[in-house]
Fold each of these.
Amino acid sequence: MMKILTYDNDILKQRSEEVAEINTEVKSTVDEMFSTMYYSQNGIGLAAVQVGILKRIFVIDIPETGKYTFINPKIIDRSTETQVFEEGCLSLPGIASEVERSKSIKIEYLDVDGNQQKLEVDGFLATAIQHEYDHLEGILFVDRLSPEIRLEKLKEYKKLHIV
Ligand code: CO
């Protein structure tokens, strides 16, 4: 199992690099990311940076919408209309907050076989993708909150994890 890095680790604030080639190493990383996510309670998405790999890869598995691997993704369109869902993150265990994001997005990416894919999604999957995509840019969901709520959530987090 891969170790999931948590909020105090500065790697999470770094930008991930493009994957140059989808080889066996990348494929086994993806497999291990899925296993690690399934092993972690309530995990529906995981970005490579969260396991210390600064590559533009994330995986998502939501029972209602399916299992996806995104490599070198590009969000090419975001709706101005927004939606709010409660979000959590395996790198911030124990806290959750409502986050406002675009209601629908268009994304281009490579799947795990190296095929170019294009997807237009809305609803919770759109939120999940934007959450994971943010990880590739070094952004966490708490960074999307108002300064007051962010501070409150981080206080809550520190209380839970610092003894
Ligand atoms: Co996350």
Amino acid sequence: MLILGIETSCDECSLALIETNDVGANPTELRKMRVLHHLIHSQIDLHRPFGGVVPEIASRNHLETIHPMLDELLSRAKISWADLKNENSPHRLGGIAVTNRPGLIGALLVGVSCAKALAYSLNVPLVAVDHLNGHLHSIFLSEKISEAQLPLLVLLVSGGHTELHLIKSLPPASLNSICLGSSRDDAAGEAFDKCAKLMGLDYPGGKFIDALARSGSAEAYAFPRPRIHHQETGQFDFSFSGLKTSMGNTLTKLGFTPHIFGDTRPERLPQGELLSHLCASVQEAIVDTLLYQSQAALAASHAKSFAVVGGVSANSRLREKINEEIKVPTFFPGLEFCTDNAAMIACAGAYQILRGEALTTDQVLKLNAYSRSELEGSPSP
Ligand code: KG4
Ligand code: ZN
């Protein structure tokens, strides 16, 4: 079955066509999802001058790019619009999966509106996917995951979230998971990006820190590694907001002006070897903190396997240290499926469709988008 995935929750417009390998397969077994084609259009260049994502610019750009991208996706996959509609075609579309929460409302609404129009005109099932559930499914795009044993502990590390989930069932069943911990303030990706910004690096700075850290010393500067003791709360929580203060203070002590204060003269910002040392040191503090809480949660939950998903799972030092120190089998998404992408949304949505959870016509018409603050404390719509 062919599934179209649509992701527009933030500053990436992404479309994917995946194929569920369900011919004659046992409905209870983990099915391989084959990504036929996927496209990711990043808006980073548009937002960079502002040092962060501007919601109105994001929505407008999604609107301008989504339709040409649909045409391009189909042309790359050598599938026509007529094929998608034709009940007798091997390329008949089996369903559409769209992210509708959490994210920037205007950005989400572009994807949701496009998905509703397509589902209506092509007469195919539509499912709404939670972006975080999409990230959790990014590991199920890989063959290797069939070796994972339950319970599976997943560390979700992105620009907006840092969470530990204990998963007790694998797809095609819905991921029956409990949250063992989350960030009380900044997310891990946010900590990378805010520290990068203070050092004068471009937005989003996680990947620049990762690259520069390779030639720096992780012991050059001391950054905090907040350890929240789960004995007190029962949760394996994180707190990264102190890192930006610490980075600001370190830069000031070294005689620089943290970039956030608007002084962009190159001599006021760290360069060369010193910049690499700062990157390596702050990266190590983030990685150590993630590893420490993950190890504690692994021990307490007796998880038999471990996975890391979300944009920060692309970090090379995090991957290296996890591979060195975590003793249970560990899984990462392919690098192209760490940051936001529609293939993971199509994968989560495909399983929803296979479970018979497609929206009814009435639900399709009412389908809406929800920001994070609208969802917090209220049940999933
Ligand atoms: O999952 P994602 O694309 O978007 C959200 O759902 O938030 O994650 C984006 C985050 C950004 O904070 C970005 O700096 C971070 O992932 N990131 C990295 C790396 N690549 C992306 N952080 C550290 N090292 C990387 N290589
Ligand atoms: Zn994401």
